[in-house]
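User: Can you model how magnesium ion sits in this protein?
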Amino acid sequence: MKSDLKTRHGGKILADALAAQGARLAFGVPGESYLPVLDGMHDLQDKLRFIVCRQEGGASYMAEAYGKLTGEPGVLFVTRGPGATNGAIGVHTGLQDSTPMVVFIGQVPNEFAEREAFQEIDYRRMYGQMAKWVAQIDRVERIPEYVSRAFHTAVAGRPGPVILALPEDTLFSEAAVADVPRHHTVRAAPSPAQISELKKLLESANAPFVLLGGGGWDRNTTQKLQKWIEANALPVGTSFRCQDLFDNRSENYVGDVGIGINPKLAQRVKDADVLLVIGARLGEMTTSAYTLVDVPVPRQTLIHVHGGAEELGRVYRPTLAINSGMAQFVEAIEKLSLGGPWKATTQQARKEFLEWTEPRPMPGQVQYGEVIGWLSDRLPDDTIIAGGAGNFAGWLHRHFRYKGFRTQLGSTNGSMGYGYPAAVAAKLAEPKRTVFALCGDGDFLMTGQEIATAAQYGANFVAVVVNNGLYGTIRMHQEREYPGRVYGTELRNPDFAAYARAFGGHGETVERTADFASAYERASASGKPAIIEVKIDPDAITPATTLSAIREKSLKSKQ
Ligand SMILES: Cc1ncc(C[n+]2csc(CCOP(=O)(O)OP(=O)(O)O)c2C)c(N)n1
Ligand SMILES: [Mg+2]
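Assistant: Here's the modeled complex, given as structure tokens:
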């Protein structure tokens, strides 16, 4: 039976398995531990491109961003020990963001196992809490089976990362085995009884609120859901860094239920009688540290729809728990007509959203809120905005209008350094779309070396580095807790425009609001990876307040 199968080495079997699963890009930093895989991918370059990166942190963010953007597992290759530890950041992001990923790690040969051989780590223990499944492929002929399971597991239910360790002997050995066809995306669907219960609960509501978030969405589903929400005049908010699940220009969109939430919106969520949560986990950032929704039994009638059965009842005991994929759920509700009395409330909430997102004057020469507003109007509707973590992102969350599915790439685990590599991955995955990265000065230098990867592969996009000379977020908390006792939060920065030029990119420096538009146009026309350093006043610490105001308030309260 097996005679017509070609004998291949483990690396080739693995590369062919990836192509059979539909992988188009793989990100990584090479290691001698997985040379046969590089050899296997050598023959597949027209189907599966290996993107060689400069640090595994950047590579793992790229794989995560690819998974988030496409819904297909982002593939990452890292070497043993040091590669595996560097690469952990993107895996943690993938876990908290419910992003499908398949991560391959080199491993010492089985004959040296458990001796603490060179760079040896047991990945089942190291990654045990950070992945949906961690395994090691000890037999060459089982590679297709493990890879198929890894892809199925990564996308099923609540998507997430899967880790496969590759002992050297598995990769160098040979076998004659068949490839496995492309994986299924296995998702649950609601029952008719659950949908009639949902209808009953929503029909009896006076002040319902819909909250969207989490992973496992697709464009068609978000568009169908938007139609349903608009037809039923429901108010809708999005969870932390999931603002692109609903067109922010819609009259039904009432805001971002995340960090720095509009207090009026927070009150609305608290006061809702029925809370329909679709896809969001209701995590700490989304619930304002578990204050908007009481643990474990909410005051609101909670209808919780989630792709992962284990998420339902994990923190909150819902009135109605529905384990369903997003597409399956939306298909089941799209014909429901509710006709409730809440239209005026939705209009009022929308008015409050518009007031809240109007930029306010801030100290200094750059009105950063206006810059974000300009970008929101200027960039094409389908632009992918990749952002990192830090207070600078607060202006983006507040003043940018996301216009459709997967126009936002952010890290819900608040992981710094995400924006730049995420933008590189986005440009490689969708070269026709405009990509824009927003980084902080601290945030950017965590992974900014990936501008070398952007230059190497022609991933041309504009990145803004918001420079306040601070790890501003931490400085803000420091001034609140220990006013005036500044320590460990100040930064001496390089010339970011010169940094871009050193990598063959284009650099701009902006110190006044009026100069931003022309700098952006030059950067965008340069045909190179471009960085615009925007210098903002360090006192302008959030879209709403200043560092000095926080310090004074804290000093007063401690007197
Ligand atoms: C990888 C990582 N390290 C540390 C932190 C803690 N942290 C959160 S925000 C922040 C400062 C961000 O600085 P910057 O990018 O300059 O943005 P700013 O707050 O100044 O706008 C730090 C250190 C984190 N979230 N992620
Ligand atoms: Mg900063």
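A couple of observations from the model: The longest helix spans residues 56-70. The pocket of thiamine diphosphate (ligand 1) is lined by residues 389-392, 414-417, 440-443, 468, 470-474 (CB under 6 Å).
User: Helpful, thanks.
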